[in-house]
Amino acid sequence: MKTIAIVLISVALALCLVNYGIDYFFYLKNKYCRFHIGRWQQAEWEKAVEKRAVKWLKKTPTVKITDNSRYMLLDFLNGKYRSKTIQSWQKAALILGLLESHSEAEKKAAETAAEALIDSSGNWKESPVAVDCGMLSYAILKAASEPLKIKPAMDDSIAIIKKNINAVGMISYTAGKDNPDMYVDTIGLVCPFLALYAKVFEVSEWEDIAFYQIKMFHQYGLYENTALPNHAFHIKSKLPLGVYGWGRGTAWYVIGLMDTYKNIKKKEYKDLLKKWIFDAAEKYLIYQRQDGGFGAILQRTQTYDSSATAALAWFYMNCYEISSQEKYKQTAEKCMKKLLSCTRITGAIDWCQGDTKDIGVFAQTYDLMPFAQGMALRALDLK
């Protein structure tokens, strides 16, 4: 009995050491990587951000789905540490950022990464299961030199989205077509893909569906006279759900507006999207912080989030490209100056809000997020 007790105690101590060792390793890693953060010259920073994105295409870092920084071993074992659906839009943003680069080598890296996700028969190597796949599908379709060869995979993505269309024509972000909540996430993750799919494969039905999502969110999901999106709204009651002005939610809204605008063909849709784009662009100017960043909650400027700031940098660069109004370019440049100050010595943009847990339940941790890296690159590509 004494021997058994010693063995059990030894095993328990070993597990404790492993558990605390893992926690301490990640703590030290983050602390070390933030030494000398933001000490960059503009030109070298741009190269470092691009170089880091290329590395991450080959091995995309995990975005945690937990805020927990203690007993992380338990999260690993219980499958509560990472999610494939979150990882899909991390890789999507990296592909888009490099695909739109001025460098042919970076474009080729993006095309190669996109091709690697599709098999020789044009199907997904690893089939997606949720509507989050829309952004990755968008990136792959944009990268495709011969779109018909990858149409089976794109059709699979369309089928997943179609299953989530409810009786009133809205696409549910989670839990199938019976979910009564319309998330702002859907606007950015799904609508650009539907518009591009409609254009490339000449299926106008999906252009109509894409525009309808944005139209309904514009009508029921924005706070009056501010263009600040809510996290969601209830489809039947039309009542708001969650928080207005969530930073990454605003990112999803402007990505949906801009990328859908770029790909949609019907003039009436394009004209309305352009109107909504510049309405948002004007109204968000007052929420930019003195240091150039945007908040995790836009109207609460004491907060900061690099993922929102990177997306809005890209949005304002596009606004400048469309309108030639210098104020939009200046806004984007201030965003990029702030992003530079949050970039680690490795070239990785830091201080991105972690994954959202539920409607109105936001992460309290800030770390790396490849999505922000990709969106920052998309902004730099427009310089």
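(the above was protein one; protein two follows)
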Amino acid sequence: MKRIGYFVLAAAMLCMLTGCTIRKDVTEGQTETGISEDAEDKEREEEAAGREDTGEADLSQDDKDGEKTDESEQQETMVLTQQVQVTADEVNVRDYPSTGEESSVIGKAYLHDSFMLVGQNEEWYQITYLGQDAFINKEYAKVVMTEAAAVPGSEESDKESASGRCIVIDAGHQQKGNSEKEPVAPGAEEMKAKVASGTSGTASGVNEYELTLAVSLKLEEELQDRGYDVIMVRRENDVDISNSERAQIANEAEADAFLRIHANGSEDASVQGMMTICPTAQNPYCGEIYQDSRDLSESILDAMTKETGAVRERVWETDTMSGINWCKVPVTIIEMGYMTNEEEDLAMQKDEYQWKIVRGIADGLDQYFEGDREHSRTGS
């Protein structure tokens, strides 16, 4: 009997120790309260019954955390950056922080143009200009803080959608045109000059080939930041690459899109606006890329005009362009504006406006590929 008594007493003590002490093996989300499992279960049942009476959903902690995450992903955050803003009507951009013989002027900046601040000393701001380090005298500029909206998660989403996409950028024209002839398309009897030097700004005096390269280098940077693989047809002005050769570069790369950057001209100085150019559906040389090229042209034109506020002209379908006729991949010619229109010409020389053009092109490209994914998912 004594032994039985001891066992009963031991069992009671064990029950007390396991059932009524603070649990050390609580799972994530439970509180260490010292309440027994039975009491907790009963309390949860009562709470659940109360929720059923009121129609309240029984959300787990994970569900609630998920709701909070979804909400936070939709909230915009503001990112502050330091920019160098020009305060003079015009200022030289130099390759070395000096006005001496060791320094060369590599460009011009204009009132309210902004550049990313890289560094500074007592007299000079170091900036990023056309993809390279450059310098502006502090007497003609100031540092300002700018902010941009960013949606958490959106950058990774953009990069995911762009991952593996190859984009070929052709900065239109070159320093010296080549009047030698080449076929306008594979096997065509009609011949055209291999490449022209392009137009020039009636107000700025800037050559089209200079402007297209400046914008193309910015576009390369923007697209790479978004996760695209980028191939540049040219990085210098003093080259000799014909229109058919430019198309062949895109073909050989099996590019997902071929972007040909240009600026327009007209005998009527009042004409302004943006347009894009693609082949017709009846093009005998590249008709198979018509729909993709048309969609690409539409997306980019819509996004560019939205970003810049420029006049939307049209998507021009034509089979007269050698650089299009030789293409086997989706292609668009992007006419950023009219260099024969004073207002548009001067605007296109400004760094800030060039970045707007670039963001518009990149947004249009994103939208084009998003539409391509939707098309694939629906099977239409």
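Reviewer note on protein two: The longest helix spans residues 351-378.
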